[in-house]
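Hey,
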Amino acid sequence: MKQNEKSSKFVWFLLVIAVPAVFAVTVFGIVLSFMGVNVMEEAKNTGKKIPIIKNVFTEETTTVTSSNENTEMQWKAKFDEQEDYIKILTADLQKKEKEVTTLKSDIALLEKQVEDAETSVKADENEQLKKLYEAMPAKDAAAVMTEMNNNDVLRILTLLQEETQAAILAKLDAKRAAELTVLMTNNSL
């Protein structure tokens, strides 16, 4: 019976005092929140003034500070790692740029060599063509040139000596010789 009496007093305390008090505090906190008061911050500040609860907030602050320091150290480590990676990439880029510059100069040198070789080959061909037409009788050279277009004939005539040019032009048709003479005059201007 005593136990029933104790338990009924406890139930009465919960139902009449504790539950309404928790409900009132909750409603009061909600109303203050709507009014713009930071209820949690105010509760922490008030709790820091109570000696026993003060230790709970101090430990929580220490944990948050320690966590922030760890996060900051992790970000700093990542930042340092990224800086090192950027330095490596920059050095690699500079190396590649030097290689590109070297390759461009090599290409320019090779192009010059090809151009010189082509000029040399063309000069050799022109020299052989000159020897061939100067060794040929004017009548035969004129017969061959009759079948060629004016540009090719003009190129060959400019290689030959003046006497050979005159002899070949004399053996060509008068109209064709006149056309070639005009072209030779225009090219020399």
